[in-house]
Amino acid sequence: MVVYLVGAGPGDADLITVKAVKILKKADVVLYDYLSNDEILNYAPDTAKKIYVGKKAGSHYKKQDEINELIVKEAQDRSNNKEGKDPVVVRLKGGDPFVFGRGGEEILELAKAGIDFEVIPGVTSAVGAPTSLGLPITHRAVATSFTVVTGHEDPTKPDKQVKWDFTADTLIILMGIGNIKENTQEIMKYRDGKTPTCVIESGTLPNERVIFGTLDNIADKNINTPAILIIGNVIDVFKDLDYLKAKE
Ligand code: SAH
């Protein structure tokens, strides 16, 4: 019995890996988060038990401890209840399981419970959203490095790990809209307020939208989630191209 931690990709159902689809097709149980695209669940058989463990409208997130327990319980139930074939338990997560997906915590719990697991990478929205638009995050002579960082650090931490003093040329911020005002203020201590900045809303999905601005004005724009924030001069090189303009 193996629990598969599977990356669902950035949104577009075709941007999941072939390996992930093969595993989903034989799933007995799928525990899934909020996904940018429900279509991905349809790769699993109708008979599979599908358990939503993300945020429900009007209610709270399941706590990570509860999710960990549930994955272990589903895995144990399946292995005790042999139905002739090796049961397949899938933990499906948006993007890549280990990019702000708390996948590390889940495999530690599985390891503690003595349950085998395999991790299937996914295209992270941090890279997949800009790339699918045709916006390079590195570009010769303009950007030789990028940093991916959370805009919403665990509020219970006594000391902040994110100081916003990153030196990478391109800064990519996930979960960055709720705190956009405070965070951009902090970043302006280290970067010019006129640094080209953009937001990609619902990347790779039909309602995808790009919002262009600068570090000092992006927080004033009307932004819907899910969205990633990208800061860096590389945006200026590409933003006037017709295909990118069309996404505004
Ligand atoms: N593991 C995921 C990230 C989980 S954190 C990954 O690798 O992509 C959730 C954050 O991802 C959101 O707050 C948003 O910043 C970003 N995100 C996920 N899907 C997105 C999409 N389709 N378009 C824009 N941002 C997205």
Report the total helices.
7
Estimate percent helicity: 10-25%
CATH fold naming of the largest domain: Cobalt-precorrin-4 Transmethylase, domain 1
- The CATH class designation of the largest domain is Alpha Beta
Largest sheet: 5 strands, parallel
- The total beta strand count reads 10
* Ligands, ions, cofactors: S-adenosyl-L-homocysteine
CATH superfamily label of the largest domain: Tetrapyrrole methylase, N-terminal domain
Report the portion of residues in β strands.
15-25%
Domain unit count: 2
What is the 3D form?
elongated
Record the strand order, biggest sheet. 3-2-4-1-5
Poorly predicted residue ranges: none
Distance between the termini: 47 Å
* Element pattern in H and E: EHEEHEHEHEEHEEEHH
What is the averaged pLDDT score?
Answer: 92
Which structural category fits the helices and strands? alpha/beta
Q: What's the alpha carbon Rg, rounded to whole Å?
A: 20 Å
Q: Which second-level CATH architecture of the largest domain applies?
A: 3-Layer(aba) Sandwich
How would you describe this protein?
The protein is of the alpha/beta class and 248 residues long. A five-stranded parallel beta sheet has the order 3-2-4-1-5, with helices on both faces. Helix 2 packs across helix 3. The mean pLDDT is 92. S-adenosyl-L-homocysteine (SAH) binds next to helix 4 and strand 10.
